[in-house]
Amino acid sequence: MTHPTAHRLLVPVGDSVTIRETVAYVVRRASEALEDGQAVELHFVSISVMGATSEESGEDHERLRELIDAWLTEDFGEEIPADVTVETAIVGQDQYLFSPDDYANVLLEYASNHDLDRVVMDPEYNPEGTIPLLAPIESRLRASDLDVEQASVEREARQPVLARAASLPKYLAIFAVSFGFYLSIGSLVLFDLVTGAITAGVVSIFLTPVAFRRNPSFTRALRQLVRLPLYAFYLLWEIAKANVAMAYVILHPSLPIDPKMVELRAALWGDVPITTLANSITLTPGTLTVTVTQRTFLVHSLTGSSRDDLSAGGLERAVRFVFYGRSGARIPSPRERDDYTDEVTPTDPDAAAEPETEVQAGG
Amino acid sequence: MTPLEWLAVVLAAGGVFFGFVTAVGLVRLPDVYTRSHAASKSDTLGSVLSLAAVAIALQSGIATIKALLLLLFLFLTSPTAAHAVTRSAEDQGIEPWTRDSEGDE
């Protein structure tokens, strides 16, 4: 359908601050190609994000597709020229994409299936959201037969996402923590003091750029450190209860379990609070965090009473207390907020395995 | 035996008990999700009690601190491992076992 020497572009797209400029760049490139009298094929491909349900990424994809359509129409002026074919696709849904190579391979596969010859990368493209993958993906793509170019876009000073500007307070905080840890497992003799200082120095040099999002505040850290033991005791008590309940359920002759998947949207923001809550949920009565997307927790629960505890939000309140102070603890429970969903439908019924039936085995 | 030694023995016995519950749970529970429950919870408390017994039995400052640090790391790694296992199970599309599905078979 297209000319053999047509410009066939692959544009990986996703949530990124420069997606709009990238589309504009693609349109400029396409217009140049059109002046040569060549037909142009544009493939906007989004990669299904790991951890998102297929429904979620489908919605995201749909939203993105509409946006891209609107931008293309705008940039081409009135309507997209007849010589331009626009395709949008979503790839990688049924695969567990982990390394940059996995992402690159998915793109390469798509490119070879559609006979594409050029990749335009969004300079802020980052399929995974948190870990910067652009550079490794790009170098993998460059190793193939495809031409790879980065869209030239105007943007504010580019900031590496993982490594952030290091500052003296950050160095000192890392140094203090690692030195303290070294000494706590060693002893207070001169040898340990010296080797500890050297080790902590090396650690702080390497880890400071990645360890903090913002400058550590001594007072904030102190306040959280004071609240943390309170939380630890609360958690220990909950864990003890969890285990007694688990022991009862497991050793009971008729195995009284009623497992269910539930969903919980936590009123927490930031990596550390989310991680704390996810791990605490796993450690307490009959609940187990399966997946976390943004602040939505997919939780597997073993018994009905464990679900009641979860929707009452005691743990969430405790985590909020540690990170946001006493006022943070006074919020409605997830059930009252309507942030709690009982019985989540399975994400992919086709791929579902047969449930095992050896319930009473070994009982 | 001193009261502290008795306490250590009781804690160690508790650790053994919860280790046993973990093993029984792994065998009895029906699917990967429920089994992860047993592995992530009973196992953690079993280790916690055993380590507490160690901390008391050794009765020296530095060893106690080390045992406490081990506890801290267990609290971080054990749920993370359970999370990784169940998450990959979920990614593979393995449906959780329910009371209803038991009736179907």
From TrEMBL, chain A:
Region span, Disordered: 329-363
Protein's cellular compartments: Cell membrane
KW Cell membrane (keyword) present: yes
Gene Ontology annotations for the cellular component aspect, listed alphabetically: plasma membrane
Organism: Halapricum salinum
Residues in coiled coil: none
Pfam families: MNHE (PF01899)
Superkingdom, taxonomy of origin: Archaea
GO molecular function: monoatomic cation transmembrane transporter activity
Transmembrane feature ranges: 168-185, 191-212, 232-251
Keyword terms of this UniProt record: Cell membrane, Membrane, Transmembrane, Transmembrane helix
Matches recorded under InterPro entries: Cation_antiport_E
Protein name from the UniProt record: Monovalent cation/H+ antiporter subunit E
Membrane topology: Multi-pass membrane protein
TrEMBL record, chain B:
Bilayer-spanning residue ranges: 6-27, 48-76
GO molecular function: sodium:proton antiporter activity
Pfam families, A to Z: PhaG_MnhG_YufB
Keyword Transmembrane helix recorded: yes
Domain of life of the organism encoding this protein: Archaea
Keywords attached to this entry: Membrane, Transmembrane, Transmembrane helix
Name the record gives this protein: Monovalent cation/H(+) antiporter subunit G
Lineage: Archaea, Methanobacteriati, Methanobacteriota, Stenosarchaea group, Halobacteria
